[in-house]
Design brief:
Arc Repressor Mutant, subunit A; 9 helices; single chain; 2 domains; 14% strand
Length: 252
């Protein structure tokens, strides 16, 4: 073996050490994702080169996925790369908690019917509405400003959200609220009441009818909510009643 190759071999960590480090990276992505490479390096005490090497390996093996996320505050600049565990990666980590939750909800549906699942989902999202209300109300009455405040609040809880403005005509404009991550995606695939409850919360927080265009649970790349901002009559006195059937129309 040449001196150069011997030196390289001496500086390379053992294979088992690499595997242990990749397990740490994978666990960190599961717990903290969506997360950037820089955040992972700081969290785990790894150099940028080491983080990239392990992320590339996990990506090639289908364990993690890259999500391109826009700036939730300004919408400007190049999208940032964030890492989340793929469905394959979730399975590899073991999803006992997910199996338990799905079994419990299935039994709840069998004993209490769909109404019981709806009540459970609404109760879960009631805390979100309570926490986000002061943040959204602080933005004032303008729906566009409220939508962007909602996106900021969602991003603070790891939903990786952004709100972009679109003008179709002089009198027809809208915001599109996007979420690149959903902590209950797998459950919502089987129980769309979770998506419906969240949509109803958005409608009440924003004070206008909203419509889900796509969801991660139904196969979309992001959850997208259409929020009209420039149409006469967009206000509603009972917004949650107009959003509860959106999930059936959410195929992207």
């Amino acid at each position: 073996m040449s001196e150069t190759h011997a030196a390289d071999a001496a500086t390379m960590p053992p294979v088992d050490a690499d595997e242990r480090t990749r397990d740490r990276v994978r666990s960190a992505v599961l717990e903290h994702g969506p997360i950037s490479a820089a955040q992972l390096g700081k969290l785990l005490g790894l150099t940028p080169a080491a983080v990239r090497r392990h992320l590339d390996t996990l990506d090639r093996n289908g364990v993690i996925e890259v999500k391109l996320v826009g700036n939730a505050r300004s919408g400007a600049g190049r999208p940032a790369r964030r890492y989340v565990l793929s469905r394959r990666g979730q399975s590899a980590m073991g999803n006992d908690y997910l199996d338990i939750a799905r079994t419990a909800l299935t039994q709840l549906a069998e004993t209490g019917g769909e109404a019981a699942i709806t009540a459970f989902a609404e109760q879960r999202f009631a805390k979100m509405e309570e926490d986000y209300r002061p943040i959204v109300d602080a933005a004032g009455d303008d729906i566009t400003a409220r939508s962007k405040a909602l996106a900021t609040a969602l991003s603070g809880d790891g939903f990786v959200a952004s709100s972009a403005s679109f003008s179709f005509t002089a009198t027809l404009a809208a915001e599109q609220l996007c979420q690149a991550h959903c902590p209950v995606q797998e459950l919502a695939t089987s129980f769309p009441q979770f998506c419906d409850a969240e949509t109803a919360v958005f409608s009440r927080l924003l004070g206008t009818d909203v419509r889900r265009l796509s969801t991660l649970a139904s196969g979309g790349h992001v959850c997208t909510t259409h929020i009209p901002t420039g149409r006469s009559g967009s206000k509603t006195t009972n917004p949650d009643t107009s959003t509860t059937s959106n999930h059936s129309q959410e195929r992207p």
